[in-house]
Amino acid sequence: MDLSDVSEELAHIEGQINDIFRALSNGFQKLEKIKDPNRRSRQLEELTDKMRECKRLIKEFERAMKEEESRNTNNTNRMLNEKKQSMIKELNSYVALKKQHASENKRIDIFDGPGGGGDVFAEENVQLASSMTNEQLIDAGHRMMDETDQAIERSKQVVEDTINVGAETAAALKAQTEQMSRIVNELDSIHFSMKKASQLVKELGRQVATDRCIMAMLVLIVIGVIAIIIVKLVNPNNKDIADIPGLPPPANRKLL
């Protein structure tokens, strides 16, 4: 398989995985010759650590594939995917071989753990593509595309809802701004009206005070006139009081 056009990162990861596979092959060959149970257990633990590292590198390989997928050709992506499936298949063959030796040595497989899952990728609950038929792969691809379409539709709906909420919020803010402007204008009008009314009240107060002064003077004049009339009537011969204009002088009466 020609993968000369892939990135240095993928090539480096692939080289590390191949080194681990060679070490696993040599390790299992060495394990066949070991008879002591303790030494076999230690050898199995070392092989387990290498398989864990190989699993991590395969995940790194898959991550790098996804990052470069848009830049590679379809043929390159297909070859990379086949290479990944080949590495997974080879790793699982070593896992099965390790389980066989662990069973013979009556040791607990650390890959099984409390849940008892023996495959390296069992925790992901994903069926290996290498064991799937073309029809199963197509069906899985269709399901993934359907799920992606649904996720896109949900995202579109969220975006539309967000836009609608934003538009409604903007309209509400605009209405509130206009209402506040009207309130400010009304407050200005009220302030002006109150100022005008205060001026009118002051003017009315001054007019009322002036009218009261005039009325007081008129009352004093009327009282003075009445007093003069009364005095003139009582003492008509009093020359100190001038005759009131318009009022005939009193007639001189003699007592019989």
UniProtKB/TrEMBL annotation:
Subcellular location, in the record's words?
A: Membrane
Q: Which residues cross the membrane?
A: 214-234
SUPFAM superfamilies recorded = SNARE fusion complex
Q: Which InterPro entries match?
A: NPSN/SNAP25-like_N_SNARE, Sec20_C, T_SNARE_dom
- Ranges of residues in domain T-SNARE coiled-coil homology: 142-204
Lipid bilayer topology: Single-pass type IV membrane protein
* Coiled-coil annotated spans: 44-78
**Protein name stated in the entry:** Plant SNARE
Organism in which the protein naturally occurs: Musa troglodytarum
